[in-house]
Structures are given as structure tokens and as C-alpha cells.
Design goal:
Number of strands: 0
Order of helices and strands: HHHHHHHHHHHHHHHHH
Helix content: over 70%
Number of domains: 1
Structural class: mainly alpha
Number of helices: 17
CATH superfamily: Amino acid/polyamine transporter I
Distance between the termini: 61 Å
Length: 408
């Protein structure tokens, strides 16, 4: 029992990062991969998880080594404007993604309980604001809540395999890289974009500092990062396998999360649909709070008022993220308006925030003067450079998509 309690004390930040990344977007991307390509893209998911784990572990070491937070360190060495640009762009990224979290929790809660779709964003946003306002120690309570929600996701989605079944041999075959076919490049890009989040990885440095880990406990920080992102990959893989077993070869539209839940109801029955929606609700709400805190923390630290998770600046900006995401979602659900404006702002901000965060993590964690013996090794450095190139390629594709959408 003492060993189990000791293990719980040695994890936390990695689970929070995993909970942020594993939101409705990740669920849709994994479901679409399984529905359209069966097990074939498991290797691409594994690659995205590897890049995310490498960057999260780099940021964890960075958090243990820096004398201050990353953006404060950046402001002290290179001036406030660059730190402010990083914080502001990250704020708009997570504000836009909060819209997706609201839609996800609305679909899940509506399927489980019923009621008007627009009421659920208001309910969960209010609950999240109460969490931020009333929590005396935000990080400590956040860690406990995320631990519970990740456990619910794990049980729900793994339990869903009871209804769908799976093939170990096809899983092994899916982990072998192979040439893309048909729409697989588009699906692979979606999985990379939703699984490998440079902004969430960057935030790991802040979570590690909030946990109280230092150079002396850097081993715990690294281990926690790999455990958390490993769980993220495992749950995403389970979702992909479940979709491959139930939706592959059907006319399902896995890009629509509401249609996905309804399709599973017809295939798996009410029991399977309930299990899936419980997992979806946990994934959406876990991303709800932690995602808002990323925007609040980076905005506050970038502008300079303070980065303390219990401070007024972080709480205030975090609530602003929640309100913005909720307002757009309620407008979409209640009146049928398009949510494209919010998503376009988030995507445009990603063009700045993702490369900046990736470059900062890679360069700072590779610096001998900053990291000392904790600097990146050869393998980590190579994987970091490849991961940065992936981020830049994703941004180039996103820029092209935005240009075509705006010019069309």
C-alpha cells in the first residue's frame, strides 16, 4: 500500500498534460483513423506519441533546471515582447480549443442525461470557474481531479473493447510503417496535430515547478512525463482499435462526434454507447480545466503580472478562456451559428504558438549553460529536431488550408 501511495506522489504533471491533449479532437482523430483505415495508422499514432513524450520530458527537465519559469527567463534574457507574444498566442490557441471541449461535453452529457444541448457548456463552465475560484491550492486539487478523470477514461475506453473486440495480430501489423493510401495523409496529419501539442508540452515545465520538483528529483519528472504520455497513447490507440472494429467499412461519419456516438449506439447497443459517452465526458471535462489553466498561466507569465497558479492573474485569465469557449459553444448550439470564427482564430494563433513553444523547449533544454548535466543527449536532440520539423510541416499545411478557406 505504501509503495502505491509513493507511486501516486511521484506522478501528476504528466497525467495533467495527457488529460489536456486527450480531448474531443483527439478522440475524433483516432476514431476517424480506425473507421477509415482500420489498424493501418497505429504506427503513425505511435510516432506522434513518441514526439509528444520527448518534448514533454524535455520540458520537465527544463522546469527542474531553470531558476524561473520559461517565459520569465525569456523576458529576463531577451526582453518582454517575445515572452508576451508566446503567452498571447498560446492564450488564443487554448481559447479556440475550449470551444471543442464544450461541444464534446455537450454531446456526452446530452447522450447520458438529455436536456437542451446549450445548457451543458454553461453547466460545466460554471463548475470549472468554481474550481478555479474556490481551490486554495489549484495545482494540488487539479492533480487529484485529473487522476480520477484519467482513470475513468482508461476504464471506459478499455471497457469499450469488451463490446467491440480486438485483434492482437492486427495491432502488431498496424505498428509496422507502410505507405499511405487514399485519405490517410489527411488523417495522419489530424492525429499528429491533436496528439503532438507543443503548447501542452511547453506547459509541462510549469506543472513540474508547481509540483515542487527540482534537479534532485528530475528522475521523477522524466518518469512521470513518459508515464503520462504513454497513457495518452494507450487510450488513443484503444479508441482507434474500437473504431476499426465497429466503424470500418460502414458509412459512419467519425468527423462528427455526435454522429459517432449515435453510430456506436446502433452497433454496440445502449451499454456500449453509455461506456463511450462516459469516456468522452471525462476526456472533455479533464481538458476543460487544465486547458484553461494553460492559457491563463502562459498569458499571465508572458505579460508579466505573475505566473503563480494560485495568483489572481492566472485565475483571471483562465476564467477568460472558459468564458470565451463557452460563449461560442452556446451560440453554436442554441442558434445554429457557425463556430468557424473561433476555430480560425485558434488555428491562426497555432501558427505562432506551436513553433515558438517547440523552439523554446528544444533550444533551452539543449543549452549546456542552462541545463548543465541535464541537457539533451544526442538521441533526444535528434528526435527534438525531427519533432520541430513535424510542427513546421503541420503549420505549413495549416497555413495553406487557411489561405484556401479565406480566399475561397
Amino acid at each position: 500500500m505504501n509503495e502505491k501511495r509513493g507511486l501516486v506522489k511521484r506522478i501528476g504533471p504528466g497525467l495533467i498534460t495527457a488529460a489536456v491533449v486527450l480531448g474531443p479532437g483527439s478522440i475524433v482523430a483516432s476514431s476517424r483513423a480506425g473507421a477509415e483505415s482500420s489498424y493501418h495508422l497505429l504506427w503513425m499514432l505511435a510516432l506522434a506519441v513518441l514526439f509528444m513524450a520527448v518534448y514533454t520530458a524535455m520540458a520537465a527537465r527544463l522546469g527542474c533546471a531553470l531558476p524561473s519559469t520559461p517565459l520569465q527567463y525569456l523576458a529576463d534574457r531577451h526582453g518582454r515582447p517575445l515572452a508576451a507574444l508566446t503567452g498571447i498566442s498560446a492564450f488564443f490557441v487554448v481559447s479556440g480549443f475550449q470551444f471543442g471541449n464544450n461541444i464534446g461535453v455537450s454531446v456526452a452529457a446530452g447522450a447520458l442525461i438529455g436536456g437542451p444541448a446549450w445548457i451543458w457548456p454553461l453547466f460545466f463552465t460554471g463548475l470549472s470557474i468554481l474550481f478555479i475560484v474556490l481551490a486554495r491550492q489549484v495545482y494540488t486539487l487539479l492533480e487529484k481531479v485529473m487522476l480520477v478523470l484519467v482513470a475513468v477514461m482508461l476504464v471506459a475506453f478499455v471497457g469499450n473493447l469488451f463490446f467491440t473486440g480486438f485483434s492482437p495480430f492486427r495491432i502488431a501489423g498496424g505498428l509496422v510503417p507502410k505507405p499511405f493510401e487514399g485519405n490517410e495523409p489527411i488523417i495522419a496529419r489530424a492525429m499528429l496535430g491533436t496528439t503532438f501539442s507543443a503548447v501542452a508540452a511547453f506547459y509541462q515545465a510549469y506543472l513540474v515547478r508547481a509540483k515542487g520538483w527540482t534537479r534532485e528529483t528530475v528522475g521523477d519528472a522524466i518518469r512521470d512525463a513518459w508515464i503520462g504520455i504513454g497513457l495518452l497513447g494507450g487510450i488513443a490507440a484503444v479508441i482507434l482499435v474500437g473504431a476499426a472494429e465497429t466503424l470500418h467499412g460502414t458509412d459512419a461519419d467519425p468527423a462528427n462526434i455526435g454522429a459517432l456516438a449515435e453510430q456506436l449506439s446502433g452497433i454496440l447497443g445502449r451499454g456500449g454507447r453509455i461506456v463511450f459517452c462516459v469516456g468522452l465526458a471525462a476526456a472533455s471535462f479533464s481538458s476543460f480545466i487544465a486547458n484553461a489553466l494553460i492559457g491563463g498561466t502562459l498569458m499571465a507569465d508572458g505579460l508579466g503580472p505573475g505566473h503563480a497558479m494560485n495568483g489572481k492573474a492566472v485565475r483571471g485569465w483562465s476564467m477568460a478562456v472558459l468564458v470565451m469557449g463557452c460563449a461560442v459553444a452556446v451560440g453554436v448550439l442554441a442558434r445554429g451559428w457557425g463556430g468557424t470564427t473561433s476555430l480560425l482564430i485558434a488555428q491562426a494563433a497555432t501558427l505562432i504558438a506551436a513553433p515558438l513553444c517547440a523552439v523554446l523547449v528544444l533550444l533551452l533544454s539543449s543549452s549546456k549553460s542552462i541545463m548543465g548535466d541535464l541537457k539533451n543527449g544526442l538521441i533526444t536532440g535528434v528526435l527534438g529536431v525531427v519533432g520541430l520539423l513535424v510542427v513546421l510541416c503541420l503549420n505549413a499545411l495549416l497555413l495553406r488550408s487557411l489561405w484556401l478557406r479565406l480566399s475561397g
